[in-house]
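Action item from last week, closing it out:
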Amino acid sequence: MQNVTFPSNGGTAHGYLAVPASGTGPGLVVIQEWWGLTTHIKDVTDRFAAEGFVALAPDLYGGTTTHDADEAGTLMQELPVGKAAQDLAGAVDFLLAHDAVTSSTVGAVGFCMGGGFVLVLAAQQGDKVGAAVPFYGVLKEDYPDLSGLTAPVLGHFGEEDAFTTPEAARGLAERIEKESGVVPQFFFYPAGHAFFNDENHLGTYDAEQAQLAWGRTTAFLHEHLG
């Protein structure tokens, strides 16, 4: 487990890289929530490495983290979607060129704000992304054109989520299919927003539903990334 830098659109981006004990595996981009690259996201990245993936979590906030919802909202609002997408594109290229990565495509998993970016990244990067998994994805603005998306999509959403409502999620699924032709598989859980985050900042963590979503996610990634 190490902090790494990688080129991104003429600049340098930072991230947290976790490699499996075997030394090799499929590549996976792990995209943070609005809290930043927190200990939780690093822990999730380590957990993906334990499942056999070479996992990279880019730091979209340049080192800033918070546990305050108002500050997190401000950080997300101030983050240009275009710049974040460039950083994430750099992460894709970094993984595809990495000696430890065995897959010809990478997966992308993200949570909250990161879940929104999963779909943006998959649409931008096309066939470089072989699997996309948004957890209760949300963007501060409307999703850009998703017609470039080719990856299979597995989504996890809370039935009691006030940020990304079930209605909004179903509308997103329809839009993905209409624009890209990909039919996403969305699961709905009897839980609130951020039910996977065991730091539980919003009081919505649900261990049982988190474990169910985790098992579905790792199986899906192994199926599509080889």
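Closing note: The mean pLDDT is 95.
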